């Protein structure tokens, strides 16, 4: 019976989000209250359960996601992202322009949120398409695949960051494993798959045909690369130092753990960027703070969605149904990593949002992961891969790609939707392979 109640609540959530067009945060709260009542939580205990779920989930994520948004916004607004793309196009040359844009998308996609990276990279893609007379989908899809991969697999993006917290994983190790899984998935879904898309007709908007950019106003190349990738470098270095000094003095280990905490890493990276991409580029401090304020507006709803999902997760935990679901799932004889991926994939297909799919699946899978002693870092990547599966007409990314490239629904399904499915499937295979070595 509890399992059927949870299933009913998931269906109600899907209906509210898709047919009802309800705000995701409100939908999560409504379903959380409904689930609490149906699962027998006393009415006077429900508000406390919701508050605990929201507080526990958002508390550890708020500073990381907000600081990451600020850094990404500054990288875009200062011109550093444009400088990275231009530099890579010069290095790779006209013959390997697809690889230049793909690499730029991957590097830029690490600090930038998906929507910002999409809008930023599309004009660059179209300028190359017009200049070199290349097929738009063939050139553009690998770049957007890179943005999708970073969005689903790599912290400090909201979904993997939230999953790290829910599964009690290590941010640095998740990033390291995520890079190992993301790169092969990107190569398959990007350049390899794009070879079969040269024939797809696309008519990108002439709005992007002429791109006049004052190159002298852009930050330097080294400055742009180092600042954008500084959080990645710091997380990887401190993670390696933690293992290297595992037998060292307690005092040294404490300082390494402090320096490697994701909040401290993001704060340090943002402070450095404030000077290297802001003050030293003659951008007034007031304008920099305005950029940071705009960044918070960009991710406010993402934070609210994560908070709402946290409330539902806590209701399932407080009612005891999470453990019952975990025990029931154990009898299915499906590996937990695959089960997490499958759960996220089903929710993604129904709801459309990768973030909602990943976080909702995590609330259902976390107890089973603990019982089965599955590596939490790999669990983050498995659920992240499932949350990227089969983007179609209920996903905003699907429509952005269709409209920017002026494609038919059929050709968008054949290109964008297949690409996302390849990313999700290759991600799961990469996780299962990696499981044998860690």
Automatic annotation (TrEMBL):
Record localization: Cell membrane
Main location group: membrane
Keyword Glycoprotein: no
A Pfam family this chain is assigned to: GntP_permease
Membrane topology value: Multi-pass membrane protein
Keyword terms: Cell membrane, Membrane, Transmembrane, Transmembrane helix, Transport
Transmembrane residue ranges: 27-46, 58-76, 96-129, 136-154, 174-194, 225-245, 257-280, 292-312, 332-362, 374-393, 413-434
PANTHER family recorded: GNT FAMILY GLUCONATE TRANSPORTER (PTHR30354), HIGH-AFFINITY GLUCONATE TRANSPORTER (PTHR30354:SF22)
NCBIfam families given in the database record: gntP
Family stated for the protein in its record: Belongs to the GntP permease family.
Protein name: Gluconate:H+ symporter
Organism the protein comes from: Chitinophaga hostae
């Amino acid at each position: 019976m509890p399992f059927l109640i949870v299933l009913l609540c998931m269906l109600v959530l899907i209906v509210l989000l898709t047919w009802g067009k309800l705000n995701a945060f409100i939908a999560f709260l409504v379903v959380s209250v409904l689930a609490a009542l149906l699962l027998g939580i006393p009415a006077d205990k429900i508000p406390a359960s919701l508050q605990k779920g929201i507080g526990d989930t958002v508390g550890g994520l708020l500073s990381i996601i907000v600081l990451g948004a600020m850094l990404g916004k500054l990288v875009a607004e200062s011109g550093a992202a444009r400088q990275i793309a231009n530099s890579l196009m010069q290095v790779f040359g006209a013959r390997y322009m697809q690889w230049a844009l793909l690499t730029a998308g991957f590097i830029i996609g690490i600090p930038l949120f998906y929507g910002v990276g999409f809008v930023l990279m599309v004009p660059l893609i179209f300028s190359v398409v017009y200049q070199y007379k290349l097929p738009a989908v063939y050139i553009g899809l690998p770049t957007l695949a890179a943005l999708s991969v970073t969005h689903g697999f790599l912290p400090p993006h909201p979904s993997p960051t939230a999953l790290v917290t829910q599964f009690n994983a290590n941010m640095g190790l998740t990033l390291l494993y995520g890079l190992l899984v993301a790169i092969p998935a990107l190569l398959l879904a990007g350049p390899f798959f794009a070879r079969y898309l040269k024939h797809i007709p696309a008519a990108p908007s002439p709005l992007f045909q002429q791109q006049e950019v004052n190159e002298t106003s852009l930050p330097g190349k080294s400055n742009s690369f180092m600042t954008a990738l500084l959080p990645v470098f710091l997380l990887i270095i401190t993670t390696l130092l933690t293992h290297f000094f595992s037998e060292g003095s307690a005092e040294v280990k404490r300082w390494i753990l402090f320096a490697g905490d994701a909040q401290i890493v993001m704060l340090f990276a943002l402070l450095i960027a404030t000077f290297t991409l802001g003050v030293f580029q003659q951008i007034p401090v007031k304008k920099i703070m305005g950029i940071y304020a705009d960044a918070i507006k960009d991710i406010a709803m993402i934070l609210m969605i994560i908070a709402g999902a946290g409330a539902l997760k806590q209701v399932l935990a407080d009612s005891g149904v999470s453990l019952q679901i975990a025990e029931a799932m154990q009898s299915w004889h499906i590996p937990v990593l695959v089960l997490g991926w499958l759960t996220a994939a089903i929710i993604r297909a129904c709801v459309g949002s990768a973030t909602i799919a990943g976080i909702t699946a995590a609330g259902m899978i976390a107890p089973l992961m603990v019982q089965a002693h599955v590596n939490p870092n790999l669990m983050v990547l498995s659920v992240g891969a499932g949350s990227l599966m089969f983007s179609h007409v209920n996903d905003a990314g699907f429509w952005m790609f269709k409209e920017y490239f002026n494609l038919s629904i059929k050709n968008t399904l054949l290109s964008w939707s297949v690409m996302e499915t390849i990313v999700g499937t290759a991600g799961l295979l990469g996780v299962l392979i990696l499981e044998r070595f860690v």
